[in-house]
Amino acid sequence: MVRSMLSYSTLPISFWGYALQTAIYILNDVPSKSVPKTPHELWTGRKPSLQHLRIFGCPAHVLKGKTEKMESRSETCIFVGYPKETKGYYFYSPSDLKVFVSTNAKFLEKDYMNDFVPRSRIVLNEMAGDTIPREVPQPNPIVSSDLTQDQQPTIPRRSGRVRTQPERCIGLGESVENLPDDDDPYTYKEAMEDVDSSYWQKAMQSEIESMFDNKVWSLVDLPKGIKPIGCKWVYKRKRGMDGKVETFKARLVAKGYTQKEGIDYEETFSPVAMLKSIRILLSIAASLDLEIWQVDVKTAFLNGSLDESIYMLQPEGFIENGQMEKVCKLQKSIYGLKQASRSWNIRFDQAVKGFGFIQNPDEPCVYKRIKGDKLVFLILYVDDILLIGNVVGVLTSVKEWLAKQFDMKDLGEASFILGIQVIRDRKNRTIALSQASYIDKILSRFSMQDSKKGMLPFRHGIKLSKEQVPKNEHEEQLMSRVP
Q1: Nearest CA-CA partner of 317 in 252, 257, 239
Q2: What pTM was computed for the model?
Q3: What is the DSSP string of 42-92?
Q4: Which stretches are tagged as biased composition: Polar residues (predicted)?
Q5: Can you tell me the distance from the alpha carbon of 402 to that of 300, in angstroms, rounded to the nearest whole number?
Q6: Residue 297 · residue 404 · CB < 8 Å
Q7: For residue 474, which of 28, 40, 46, 42 has the smallest C-alpha distance?
């Protein structure tokens, strides 16, 4: 395949490395007789798109960077492959004898095929036999192509490197679902078959008791013409700073994706505190030596009221005996509903404002209350609350008031916020944030916990930019599957 690619291109034999790299990329996107699915699909769980594939060796007009006023804005280059580190294409510039990455190019594949002449009849510009084009990094490439499959970077033999066999099927024997043994159950059946089934049973019982205490629903006959929404259990092992399991949580979640706008809900928007706002307030707290306390609202979404009539199936494992045909008519909001987060936020906002807190106009989830020289900041992130203040007695009164309004859990001085460890040195008035446990979890997920340490997690000299950040949920999922 590599020999054919080079034969049908205008490139010299010294480009065999790029041809091999491109061949591996293509083979990972096509099925074989022994494996009906493509290696790409086996690795990611999704069928690959072939729309971005181009003819190896075809010419293309590539947009230049900065140019002079009357200078051409593009140059004719040759396509030589797909980069591993970033999205885009590899192009060879005959004028500069360099290979670079770009996403702004117009491929001339039709002209290339129409004007094709066998390679043996083409007189190439003389190149030294041992001269290999140099790769130069392109500053901040703009992402426009969906290139997600990993490739093994290949350098020609003359470089003197130690050669390794290319991987034909990247991740062929692995599955994204094959995570560590302590993965959280996905269904009720899995929870009951899990080694920690007794803990999951207690967690579900606690959740159901919270539902009854908050009078979330009442069992009724399903009205004619109404289709109830479903529900499911979501399980989560909550870990501490050392990565050890501290609690088992089971959340009953409505299948809100079956709701219809205008019938089951109207508005859904609900704000959350930005991470940069939390960092700013933590910095202020460190500088002024303020207290930082943390509380957690139990089943926060159950505090929101509903304006719509919503009917839900009874939760699996907790169907009332003798009332199996009845459904739950929701009287309070529940996790999973489209409007659940908004209902809870409205309820909380009204409560804290009634207690004298003032909402920040630029950050709706940050509140403050000032009385003389006594200052209290309140930060809300869904159901996590941070209290920052300079007087312990005032913070205590605020915490006691919150406990009367909502079912809360006092977590004491903040040490673990949103999965981030807070390391505080009050003597020197500094705060450090660490995600070491999360890094260890990711390494374990990809079986890299025993890997050798390195100064950087990527090749030296690589250029990164905000343009390479995932733009949607699909791209985020693809990125999460790659170590």
Answers
A1: 252
A2: 0.50
A3: HHHSSPPP-TT---TT-EEEEE-SS--TTS-SEEEEEEEE--SSSSSEEEE
A4: 141-154
A5: 12
A6: no
A7: 46
Tens place of pLDDT per residue across the chain (483 aa): 888 888 777 788 888 889 998 998 888 888 877 777 888 777 777 777 788 888 898 999 888 877 676 677 788 899 999 987 778 899 998 888 888 888 888 888 877 666 655 444 433 343 434 444 455 454 444 443 343 344 444 444 444 444 443 433 333 333 333 333 347 888 999 999 988 899 999 999 998 988 888 888 889 999 888 888 888 999 998 877 666 788 898 988 888 765 455 444 444 456 888 989 999 999 999 999 999 999 988 877 777 777 778 889 999 999 888 888 899 998 888 887 877 778 888 889 999 999 999 999 999 999 999 999 999 999 999 889 999 999 999 999 999 999 999 888 888 999 888 888 899 999 999 999 998 888 888 888 777 777 777 666 666 667 778 878 888 888 888 877 776
User: Rounded distance, CA 305 to CA 414, Å?
Assistant: 30
- What tokens were used for 146? 């969906």
